[in-house]
Amino acid sequence: MKLYRDVGLVLRTRDLGEADRIVTILTRHHGKVDAVAKGVRKTSSRFGARLEPFTRVDVLLYRGRNLDTVTEVVSLAAYGSSFVGDYDAYTAACAMVELADDLSEYGEPDESHYLLLVSALASLARREHDAQLIMDSYILRALRLSGWEMSVSECANCGRSDDLVAFSERAGGVLCSQCAPHSAPRINDDERQLMVALLAGSWKDTAQAGIRTLHVVTSYINAYTVWQLEAGLKSLRVAALPR
């Protein structure tokens, strides 16, 4: 079948010529897809505004040899319109979408990644929690789905569940006093418990986190992400700046 329909989340776009645009969509059932939206940059385009980043769409695509073609699209939720004027929320959304793009494969269905991203962006748009908390929780859970779960409840080296005193992105998470090298940054119980709550998505346990605790935990999560991906996320350099 050349034509197929799916729902998806627009990750990014880039212009192609004077009128066309290439759209990268994380679909629910077909994985990541690159598709051409012909004439989308013309003012007369019937679906130009529907193909913007952070938008969840119902899309009909024509399968091509190298690129698919968008033939129909319906906007289901324009999450970006809810936070485009909010610096913290917008930069958090950029970081989440960039990570989803990096972790997703073309043509490889991964419904769990899709649902996690949609849930995080919807929560961000509804202002359900602090933007940095949503971003950090998404990153930890997205990495877990990809097989890179950070150890937050037991020593990443020996598996010990008590006397956890340090953090090492290279080791894979928290470390006990016996395994922690002197150079590893020390972690207190508030910071570790926040990471536990973020990984579990236990929002009631994140609400009391102080600003300093949140910034420290974010720095650990960012370092872990860079180590696992072997490259940094451009958006994280902005999203993680102290407010």
Discrete helix count: 7
Report Rg.
20 Å
For the largest beta-sheet, the strand count, sense and barrel status come to: 5 strands, mixed, barrel
Mean pLDDT: 91
Helix content: 25-40%
Question: Which parts are unreliable, with pLDDT below 50 for 5 consecutive residues or more?
Answer: none
Spatial ordering of strands, largest sheet: 1-2-3-5-4
Strand content: 15-25%
Gross geometry = elongated
State the distance separating the first and last CA atoms.
51 Å
The helix/strand series, from N terminus to C terminus, equals EEEEEHHHHEEHHH
The SS-based structural class is: alpha+beta
What is the number of strand segments? 7
Task: Explain this structure.
Helix 2 packs parallel to helix 4 (131-145). It contains seven helices and seven strands; from the N terminus they run βββββααααββααα. The strands form two sheets. Strands 1-2-3-5-4 form a five-stranded mixed barrel. It has a two-stranded antiparallel sheet with strand order 6-7. The protein is an alpha+beta fold and 243 residues long. Helix content is 36%, strand content 23%. A hairpin with a 4-residue loop joins strand 2 and strand 3 (32-37). It has helices spanning 80-83, 87-103, 111-125, 131-145, 189-200, 211-229, 234-239; strands at residues 3-16, 20-27, 32-37, 55-62, 68-78, 164-168, 173-176.
